[in-house]
Please model this.
Amino acid sequence: MKNIIKYIFLFILIVIFVYAFSSSYKSQTIDNLAYVIAIGVDNADNNKIKVSFQFIENSVFSDSGSSDSSSTIIDTVEASSIDTAINLLNTYIGKEINLAHCKVVVFSETVATNGLSDHVYRLINNSQLRPTTNIIVSRCDAKYYIENSTSKYEKVITKYYDIFPKSADYTGYTANVTIGDFFNKLNNNDSNPVAILGGVNTKTTESAPQEDTSSQNEDFNILANESSITGDRGTENIGLAIFKKDKLVGELSAIETLCHSLITGKTNSFLISIPNPENTEKNIDISVSDVKDENVDIDISNGSPYVFLNLKLEARILSIENNKNYLESNYLNMVSENASKYLEERITEYLYKTSTELNSCVDNFYPHVIGKFLTFEDWKAYNWTSNYQNCFFDVDVNINIVSSLLLTENN
Model:
């Protein structure tokens, strides 16, 4: 009996040892994987696409990785789909491509104009790709965008990809749009998706032409790769790409993106320049730091939808002039009125652009309308996305100027 127990115990030990050894042998290790940090998709001939993969050294993902600036590798392959491109590249590099650390997916404008649904569905279906991966439409080739995505402010490129979308919180000039957001909007019949608008700034300190700054608020009427910025970093992300279903139909400038961010509650603070009420040839910089209240109401009783939008904001004056009492209530009231009027006009222009010019509702208005229908069938028959082009807009912005930021802080 003791011998039988001994043999059984020995057999169990052997099974456990073989299973454990086999498991570790078959497991994927960091040395067997190639981690993609960015994907770029461009058009190619013969109905194919050109997919560029940006890789980073595996040491960056290990605890012993160097803190020095890490080099990247970009490989490009032509294929009929992203999945096929991955499969071909697996053979080429001799490692298995892994998308678990992919930070951005970049599509060229040409690809986006033809439609992104097939590419987005394939990527979302890949269990490795995180839905928090940012989606960018580039005004240049996607490969060129990735090649120029460097930042001297961050030693590791993955850190830069993590940080740049967060500038939306304090500028409103872009938005932190993920591929998960895009996919959800694609499958929502009552709203349309947007993507980050990217480009490559080709200006240099030595060669940059002097910009004409005579037109008022020109700083805010820019798109990616059109800014007056000169520097060493190549890419810039300003504005949004607007879609109708899965096809690119237009672009938003910095100020138009700010309007979108305000309506959808995607920015916490921003700066605007408004005409000086006492000297229209000069501007006053206003820092808006708090959205006190926002209200949307939509009336469909007269056939065409009538959208009432009310925003209450709190702001401070940044521009300081000599011999000016910024605590005078009369002056603060004049600045408040000018700032409110300025934003009202910009938001109204933006809304009519999305409705009449682009016929694409990207501001999540439908929850304010759907409750006015008795049944879901009635709502579907109304077809909000088609009726959006018939909208009228009434925008009311109330900006409360507290006082000069500098004076307030010193008191």
